[in-house]
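Tip: read the tokens left to right.
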């Protein structure tokens, strides 16, 4: 049955979009399930890192469900855009690292969900694109903003205005993804990265993410003051005391997220 599969491996939760007959296209029911799942995992202290991927070996997410979009009124389309944007915003700003394991087509909304994750790892058969222009519409889940921020504005405009699909090698060259692996290696490498992050202090991960999120927004002066504020706040945590002391005592730190 279509839906999400959620599997925990230690402190890493893998969320798999499971609708392979339509290349994991996201309809409203799946979007609502995804939002509720991210909210649950966000407040679950046993979950440290979230991985998003697609079922099967052909697609990460082939986009919003085109059949469902066909016939929407402007007000319904607005709700649909806001729902997708809310999920993207959550992936980008939630207190835990989010990793996209892109195992095939990441088109339209799929590319936008991947771009909202903190880090993107892809298989060699991954394909990225914002093909909305071919449907007579435009990206609506953040693609017009995050693609330019992840790459550059000229490249983002090229892809958004043509709908051109790019392969994993080009995505890597352009900084759209951080690493590309043969298909069989993708999940082991994603889990290795996720477990590495999950071993860190949860509170340090959150503040590191929050501060880094500001890098492409606003005024650098204000952002540096904010960084210094968060940096000093870290010194009120047990985890900072433990991490610094463990280094001095030449042992592995044990973090508790406080
Ligand atoms: N929404 C709804 N259904 C989708 C879909 C989407 N975004 N993407 C793929 N599907 C469905 C197809 O309609 C097809 O269903 P069917 O078997 O009932 O006809 C099934 O998934 C398999 O896709 P198909 O097109 O037959 O596979 P393909 O290998 O020939 O092409 C793609 C793969 C990804 C190039 C092609 O499916 C495609 O262009 N999809 C749309 C991508 C898109 O525009 N996404 C952005 C939406 S805003």
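Filled-in amino acids:
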């Amino acid at each position: 049955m279509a839906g999400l599969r959620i599997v925990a491996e230690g402190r890493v939760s893998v969320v798999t979009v499971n609708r392979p007959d339509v290349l994991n296209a996201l309809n409203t029911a799946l979007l609502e399930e995804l939002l509720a799942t991210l909210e649950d995992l966000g407040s679950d202290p046993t979950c440290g890192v979230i991985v998003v991927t697609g079922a099967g070996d052909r697609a990460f997410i082939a986009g919003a469900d085109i059949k469902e979009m066909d016939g929407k009124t402007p007000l319904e389309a607005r709700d649909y855009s806001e729902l997708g944007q809310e999920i993207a915003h959550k992936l980008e700003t939630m207190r835990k690292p989010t990793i996209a394991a892109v195992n095939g087509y990441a088109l339209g909304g799929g590319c936008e969900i991947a771009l909202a994750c903190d880090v993107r790892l892809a298989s060699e058969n991954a394909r990225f694109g914002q093909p909305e222009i071919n449907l007579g519409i435009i990206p609506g889940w953040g693609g017009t903003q995050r693609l330019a921020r992840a790459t550059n504005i000229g490249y983002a405009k090229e892809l958004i205005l043509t709908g051109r699909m790019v392969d994993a090698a080009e995505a890597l060259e352009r900084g759209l993804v951080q690493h590309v692996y043969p298909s069989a290696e993708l999940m082991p490498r994603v889990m290795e990265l996720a477990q590495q992050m999950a071993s860190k202090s949860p509170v340090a991960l959150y503040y590191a993410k929050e501060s880094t999120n500001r890098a492409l927004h606003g005024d650098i002066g204000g952002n540096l003051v904010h960084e210094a504020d968060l940096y000093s706040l870290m010194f009120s945590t047990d985890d900072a005391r433990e991490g610094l002391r463990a280094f001095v005592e030449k042992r592995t730190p044990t973090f508790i997220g406080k």
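Residues 22 and 62 are 8 Å apart (CA to CA). Residues 22-23, 25, 62-67, 105, 107-109, 131-132 surround coenzyme A (CB under 6 Å).
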